[in-house]
Design a protein that fits this description.
Structural class: mainly alpha
Largest sheet: none
Helix content: 55-70%
Shape: elongated
Strand content: under 5%
Number of strands: 0
Number of helices: 2
Number of domains: 1
Length: 71
């Protein structure tokens, strides 16, 4: 991939590590036993999760693009 893609990938990995450590530091009220804590259905988050689904989908898109270019 290009240099820009590598920078994005490195940034994404750092963000994932931060998100993981944050999830460990502050467990959710629902269940701390789940590997990925799910939000309670009756109490939606007051603000959107910065490491949410959209961000992960973007990372998947980038990785799939890189896989395609390597094949």
């Amino acid at each position: 991939g290009s240099v820009r893609e590598e920078e994005l990938e490195r940034g994404a990995e750092e963000d994932l590590e931060m998100a993981t450590s944050e999830a460990v530091v502050r467990p959710t009220t629902c269940s701390a036993t789940l590997p990925l804590p799910l939000p309670c259905p009756r109490s939606p988050p007051s603000q959107p999760d910065p490491y949410g689904k959209h961000r992960l989908e973007k990372q998947i898109e980038i990785l799939n693009h890189e896989i395609g270019s390597l094949e």
